[in-house]
Amino acid sequence: MRYIHAMDIEIWSDVVCPWCYIGKRRFEHALAAFDHRGEVNVTWRSFQLDPSAPATTEGDPVERLAEKYGMSRAAAEAAQARVTANAATEGLDFHLDRARSGNTFDAHRLIHYAKSAGKQDALKERLMAGYFVEGAAIGEHDVLARLAVEVGLDEAAVLEVLDSDAFADDVRRDELEARQLGITGVPFFVLDRAYGVSGAQPSEMILGALQQAWTAAHPLQMVGAGDTDTTCSDEGCAV
Amino acid sequence: MRYIHAMDIEIWSDVVCPWCYIGKRRFEHALAAFDHRGEVNVTWRSFQLDPSAPATTEGDPVERLAEKYGMSRAAAEAAQARVTANAATEGLDFHLDRARSGNTFDAHRLIHYAKSAGKQDALKERLMAGYFVEGAAIGEHDVLARLAVEVGLDEAAVLEVLDSDAFADDVRRDELEARQLGITGVPFFVLDRAYGVSGAQPSEMILGALQQAWTAAHPLQMVGAGDTDTTCSDEGCAV
């Protein structure tokens, strides 16, 4: 019997990061084409783009973008249109004009809780769809609770997590590990804690990385001790 | 096949330093919990707390402590009791009242010799137990020889080391390197000549340092060039 090694895939990401949602789709396409897709463990790791954000960010999203980058309103609209067009190529119907941003710390705590219930990917997806497509206020507890219940999480347990500081340490540990790994932007895919892929790269490129990591973790199993008396190397042949 | 990088762990320490023995236990607990414990090289480095000490320090240890710090005899006894209590939490049965201190230069020379025989940790442990638990006179050649033979070192070789100035340069080089690294107190743990841990810190803290050093020495291998056009960071998203 062979030793089975599942590949650990960790994805640092924020709920309100447009390239993270686009990257999630590209990763899913890569995984669907990966021969060993049944032998991977995927974990969503926390990364807050703006840890100091208020629970709910008020104001017009386009105006905020224009201010942040010191660009005109027209330029900000054009930038959003480009991201929206990229999302559309992955089948995602972004409505950034009605996005209701906010602090994502509690969303990340809930994503950690969902892992313990086997619903992490479902919740991550639901929260991103809520934020980017439906205009759900991502920092508000009632919104988070509603979306969590929709993916089958227990309402009482969800409210208990939201009303406490449960999983806060897990969020902070993810962010500490991101710093230790040199991750400064998301999405960031880490394969077996050995390979990194930065950004929402094309599915083919992500698939190539999965294959490379798999090969590295599954070297040939040698039969016998090897025989240095019958080999040649860059130092010559055994004589 | 993966590139294997062993982590170098150097521990500056003196045989007669109580926190060094306590720190040795805490380090051992941290190492036992470290995933990569099989891939570390541990080297004990020399540090003499009192290079000018006579071979054997005469007199009552408590009285000497009181004199050294200008404290009352009662205060010195209380200080020893505190260290003894800390040692007990690590399973070490200190008897500081009967300690027979002295110059540790020859003990350090022997610890260097023991490394060449693959017995360095065993000798370091035996000398510390002899000094702190059993009241062995740490500066005397016959005592050093007896303890060295007990851990399996060759008696003739040990006597030859003690009767010469073998490994004296190694002791002095360790002490020079300590100064160069800014080490003024022991125990002091150096990981990959990059990370330092000063003092007998809790095992969890030492373990955290081991993990941090490991991560730093094993950066993620990036697949692809990275794509700054498809990432979000705390400075915003590529637009």
**Count of DSSP H/I helices of chain A:** 9
CATH fold category name of chain A: Glutaredoxin
The assigned structural class of chain A equals alpha+beta
Give me the side-by-side strand order of the main sheet of chain A. 2-1-4-5
Identify the notable features of this structure and list them briefly.
homodimer; 239 residues; alpha+beta; Glutaredoxin; four-stranded mixed beta sheet; two-stranded antiparallel sheet; 9 helices; 12% strand
Describe the structure.
Two copies of one chain form a homodimer. By secondary structure, chain A is an alpha+beta fold. Chain A has one domain: Glutaredoxin, CATH 3.40.30.10. Chain A is 47% helix and 12% strand. Chain A is built from nine helices and seven strands; from the N terminus they run βαβαααααααβββαββ. In chain A, strands 2-1-4-5 form a four-stranded mixed sheet. In chain A, strand 4 and strand 5 form a beta hairpin. In chain A, helix 1 packs across helix 9, helix 4 runs antiparallel to helix 5 and helix 5 packs across helix 6. The first copy, chain A, is globular, with a radius of gyration of 22 Å. In chain A, 37% of the residues are buried. The model of chain A has no long low-confidence stretch (mean pLDDT 90). At the A-B interface, helix 1, helix 2, helix 3, strand 3 and strand 4 of A face helix 9, strand 5, strand 6 and strand 7 of B.
